[in-house]
Specification:
475 residues, alpha/beta, FAD/NAD(P)-binding domain, seven-stranded mixed sheet, five-stranded parallel sheet, globular
Length: 475
C-alpha cells in the first residue's frame, strides 16, 4: 500500500489541473505530453517575425481569471500576471461609433439609453455575485444549488436562444449587438437554445473580473500551473506521445485530456460497444480559421474607443452575426464572418518589438473546412479600420486542419471541445463521474463538463471524482 500514482495524458490546462489536484491528494503524478512544448491550446510562439509573440490558440481569458480552481492556486505567486485593458471589449458599428463593455455595469448601461435599465437587470446581480455563480455553473454538478435564487435567475434566461433574449430585453440595436457578439463565442447558431448562456456568463465575467490576457502570452498559464505541480512533486514529460493505454498500465489513476475520438484510438479494442458507440456519436462544432499579424503600428480603428480594449468583435448587427454563425453551423463558409480579434500588444509590450504590435483573429467556419477566409477576415477589419492592410508586416494563417495538426484535441478546428448545443451542453461523455468502463481511467478534457475555455474545471472535477473512487475502493 505504497504511495498511489497517477498519469495524465496531455498537458493542457485541464490535464495540468487534474495533475495538480491529484498531487494535492498525495498521488505521485506524471504528465505526458506529445508535443515539445506543454500547454495544449494555451501556447505561444513566434509565428510571423522574430520578436513577435503570438498565441497559438486561446488568447483572452475571462474564465481563467474567473476560475474557482485557478483562484485557489494563487497562480500570481507562480509567475502568472494578468494584463487588463481600460475597457473589456469593443464592438464597432458602421456609423463610426463603438459599443464598449466597461468593467462597471452602470457605465456600460449608460450607452444604451432606454435599454440601460434592462442591461443592468441582466448583469448587475450576476456580476456582483460572480464567485457564487461560478461555483454553481462551472462545476456543473446535478445537486441542489447553494444559491438557488441566483442560479434560477441565470438559468431561466440562459436556456434561451441569444436572438430571443436580445429581442425580449432590448428595443434598440446597440445593446443587442454587444450581447450577441459575446453569445457568438459559443460557436452555436444565435437562434439555437442556450446560446444566450454564453453571453450571460462571459458578460458577467467581464464586469466582475475582466477579460484579461497573461503577460508574455497564453503560455504563461500552463507555465504557472506546471510551477505549482512541480512544487508538489509532480513532473511533466514532453515529446512523450502515448499511442495506447497499455503504455500506462500500472498507474492507479489515468487521466486523459483527450477528445472522445482520440481516446477511442488509445483504448483500441478494450471498450465494449455501448460506451464506444457513445463516444463515436459525439459531435464536434464549427472550426475556426485563424490569422496572426505582425504590425508596424496599432490598428487604425475608425472608432477610437476600440483602442481601449484588448478584445474587439467585428460583426455589425445582430442579424449579420446570426447569419455568419448560421452558415458555419450549416456547413457553409460565411460571406461576412463574425470576427473575434485580440490586440494584446497595446497593453502588453512583451508581445512585440518596441513600437510594433501583434494581433490575432479568427472566424467560425465549417468543421474541417480546408478553404481560406483570410480575405473575408481582413475585409471585416478594413470595414472598421480603413488602412489596416498598410500596417501588416507579416501574417501567419491557419485553417481548421492546420489548427488540428498542432493540437489534436482541436478536432476539425473546433476550439470548444465539441458542439455546445442543448443535448451536449450538460450530458457530455461521462458527465456523471468523468469515468470510463476501464478501471481507474477518466476523461478530463474540454469535452467533459463544463466544456471549453481555459478554466481547468474539467480536469479539477475529473480528479475530484477519481480520488473519491480510489479512496472508496481502498476502503
Amino acid at each position: 500500500m505504497g504511495k498511489p500514482a497517477a498519469v495524465v495524458i496531455g498537458s493542457g490546462p485541464n490535464g495540468l489541473s487534474a495533475a495538480i489536484h491529484a498531487a494535492q491528494a498525495g498521488f505521485e503524478v506524471e504528465v505526458r505530453e506529445a508535443a515539445v512544448q506543454p500547454g495544449g491550446a494555451a501556447r505561444s510562439g513566434e509565428l510571423t517575425l522574430p520578436g513577435f509573440v503570438h498565441d497559438l490558440g486561446s488568447a483572452v481569458h475571462p474564465l481563467g481569471i474567473g476560475s474557482p480552481f485557478f483562484s485557489k492556486l494563487a497562480l500570481e505567486r507562480h509567475g502568472l500576471e494578468w494584463v487588463h485593458s481600460p475597457a473589456e471589449l469593443a464592438h464597432p458599428l458602421d456609423d463610426g461609433s463603438a459599443v464598449i463593455l466597461e468593467r462597471d455595469v452602470r457605465q456600460t448601461a449608460s450607452q444604451f439609453g432606454s435599454d440601460g435599465a434592462a442591461y443592468r437587470r441582466l448583469f448587475e446581480p450576476l456580476a456582483e455575485n460572480w464567485w457564487e455563480l461560478a461555483g454553481e455553473i462551472l462545476p456543473l454538478r446535478f445537486r441542489f444549488p447553494k444559491h438557488p435564487l441566483l442560479l434560477a435567475q441565470f438559468g431561466m434566461r440562459a436556456l434561451l436562444p441569444c436572438t430571443v433574449l436580445a429581442k425580449a430585453l432590448f428595443r434598440e440595436s446597440r445593446a443587442a449587438a454587444l450581447f450577441a457578439g459575446v453569445c457568438a463565442h459559443s460557436s452555436l447558431e444565435l437562434d439555437a437554445p442556450i446560446s444566450a448562456s454564453f453571453g450571460i456568463v462571459l458578460g458577467a465575467a467581464g464586469h466582475a473580473v475582466g477579460w484579461p490576457v497573461p503577460r508574455g502570452g497564453a503560455q504563461s498559464i500552463p507555465s504557472a500551473l506546471i510551477h505549482v505541480l512541480t512544487g508538489l512533486g509532480g513532473r511533466v514529460v514532453t515529446n512523450s506521445p502515448v499511442a495506447s493505454l497499455r503504455e500506462v498500465e500500472g498507474f492507479d489513476l489515468v487521466f486523459c485530456d483527450l477528445t472522445p475520438r482520440r481516446f477511442l484510438a488509445l483504448a483500441e479494442e478494450r471498450l465494449r460497444p455501448p460506451f464506444r458507440q457513445l463516444l463515436e456519436r459525439y459531435r464536434y462544432g464549427p472550426g475556426v480559421f485563424k490569422v496572426d499579424w505582425a504590425l508596424r503600428e496599432p490598428i487604425p480603428w475608425r472608432a477610437k474607443d476600440c483602442a481601449r480594449a484588448i478584445t474587439v468583435h467585428l460583426g455589425g448587427s445582430v442579424e449579420e452575426m446570426a447569419a455568419s454563425e448560421r452558415a458555419a453551423n450549416q456547413g457553409r463558409p460565411p460571406e461576412r464572418p463574425f470576427v473575434l480579434l485580440a490586440q494584446p500588444s497595446l497593453f502588453d509590450p512583451t508581445r512585440a518589438p518596441r513600437g510594433k504590435h501583434a494581433a490575432w483573429a479568427y472566424c467560425h467556419v465549417p468543421n474541417g473546412w480546408t478553404g481560406s477566409a483570410l480575405e473575408q477576415i481582413e475585409s471585416q477589419i478594413e470595414r472598421f479600420a480603413p488602412g489596416f492592410g498598410e500596417c501588416v508586416l507579416a501574417r501567419a494563417v491557419h485553417n481548421t486542419i492546420q489548427m488540428q495538426a498542432w493540437n489534436m484535441n482541436l478536432e476539425g478546428g473546433d476550439i470548444n471541445g465539441g458542439k455546445m448545443d442543448l443535448k451536449q451542453f450538460a450530458i457530455r461523455p461521462t458527465w456523471r463521474r468523468y469515468g470510463t468502463p476501464l478501471k481507474g481511467v477518466y476523461l478530463c478534457s474540454s469535452c467533459t463538463p463544463p466544456g471549453g475555455a481555459v478554466h481547468g474545471m474539467c480536469g479539477y472535477q475529473a480528479a475530484e471524482w477519481a480520488i473519491r473512487d480510489f479512496r472508496r475502493s481502498r476502503r
